[in-house]
Design brief:
The chain is α+β, with helices and mostly antiparallel strands. It folds into 2 domains: 4-216, Rossmann fold, CATH 3.40.50; 225-346, RNA polymerase II/Efflux pump adaptor protein, barrel-sandwich hybrid domain (OB fold (Dihydrolipoamide Acetyltransferase, E2P)), CATH 2.40.50. The protein contains 8 helices and 22 strands. Strands 7-8-9-3-10-11 form a 6-stranded mixed β-sheet, sandwiched between helices. Strands 12, 13, 14, 15, 16 and 22 form a 6-stranded antiparallel β-sheet that branches. Strand 1 (4-12) and strand 2 form a beta hairpin. The radius of gyration is 23 Å and the shape is globular.
């Protein structure tokens, strides 16, 4: 199967996207804050936006080459896309929507069965839940037998159960198709569950690229915390009925029982809201983790403050403005972090 290659630059007003990467068969997730260029990147690959310079190729087939004047139209690129709102034809049934994708060949009923939506065949989009619409949208996109599939946050509006179910389905569909999937998400947990590789965009540029756990655990720098969560990659040292000990790059944390073998690699998620701060060393607490460190930065975060502390592992604690004032926190302040064992969750 083909690998998707891109080395492009695109300028729109004050925003500039510069991205060079290769996406092999499998699922590659793209993460980044709002405005980082994730959707612009997908639309450039699709052919809906024209880069200012560079080249895009799917295997040996050039889709865009500014130097040679090549710009293959969207409908000839053989790249499918699924958006957040599915964009199904409202006047058509689920089956007829999929049949539109399969018009070049393929069985709409078979595709609906493949995505677990056979019972929805006669329903129109207005009669479907958000998760059901996305199942139909996936079936329609894959029925056209694309050579690559782009997914622009298709699960972001769904509840956690629906996201998890569709994520499992997506992994199975990719394995069946064997083509590259590029999946944009704001949810690092989703990236860890489904993405073999991850590209992190920052300000229109690739800030990190590689295996998903390594990108999200901070091996490439500032991607250690995404949103209000900390993502830690570690090695299990001990596992027993009283909990597990995990070495996260030299900082050992105690978690609830992970039921993993010593030596196993795990990715842990720790919500920043579950990290407590103290200016003095604490004794006599139920928290199994008391980590000494120094404040690296104090950042605005919605209606709260994110305090980043190096232990030397960097961890993010989300606190109120009043707490920052009362504790007299500033970069360089000596602090202690308190974390309960059960605050850690296995993410991958």
């Amino acid at each position: 199967m083909s690998t998707l290659h891109a080395d492009i630059a695109l300028t729109r007003g004050e925003f500039r996207l510069e991205a060079a990467f290769s996406v092999p068969p499998g699922i590659t997730t793209v993460v980044g804050t709002s405005g980082a260029g994730k959707s612009t990147l997908l639309l450039s690959l699709l052919g809906d936006k024209t880069p200012s310079s560079g080249r895009i190729a799917l295997g040996d087939r050039a889709l865009f080459d500014a130097a040679k004047g090549i710009d293959v139209p969207v409908h000839e690129r053989r790249i499918g896309i699924v958006f957040q709102d599915a964009l199904l034809f409202p006047h058509l049934s689920a089956r007829d929507n999929v049949a539109f994708g399969a018009r070049a060949g393929g069985d709409a009923n078979a595709w609906l069965e493949r995505v677990g939506a056979s019972a929805l065949s006669a329903r129109r989009p207005v009669e479907l839940s958000g998760g059901e619409r996305q199942r139909v949208a996936l079936a329609r996109a894959l029925a056209a037998r694309p050579e690559a599939l782009l997914l622009d946050e298709p699960f972001s509006a769904l509840d956690p159960a629906a996201r998890a179910s569709l994520g499992t389905l997506l992994v199975a569909l990719q394995r069946e198709s064997g083509v590259p999937f590029i999946h944009v998400t704001h949810d690092p947990g989703e990236a860890l569950r489904i993405g073999e590789r991850t590209i992190a965009l920052e300000g229109g540029r690739v800030a990190a690229e590689g295996r998903t756990p390594e990108v999200l655990s901070g091996s490439f720098g500032r991607i250690a915390a995404v949103g209000s969560d900390n993502w830690l990659r570690g090695t299990v040292l001990e596992d027993g009925p009283d909990g597990s000990r995990v070495d996260c790059g030299g900082t050992v944390v105690v978690t609830g029982r992970l039921r993993r073998s010593p030596g196993d690699t795990v990715v842990l998620m720790l919500p920043a809201e579950d990290v407590l701060l103290a200016r003095g060393e604490i004794h006599g607490t139920s928290a199994r983790n008391i980590l000494a460190g120094r404040v690296v930065s104090i950042d605005e975060a919605d209606d709260a403050i994110d305090v980043v502390v190096a232990t030397p592992l960097e961890l993010r604690a989300r606190v109120t403005r009043a707490a920052v004032s009362e504790l007299a926190l500033a970069p360089g302040s000596r602090v202690w972090l308190l974390v309960k064992a059960n605050a850690f969750r296995v993410a991958g």
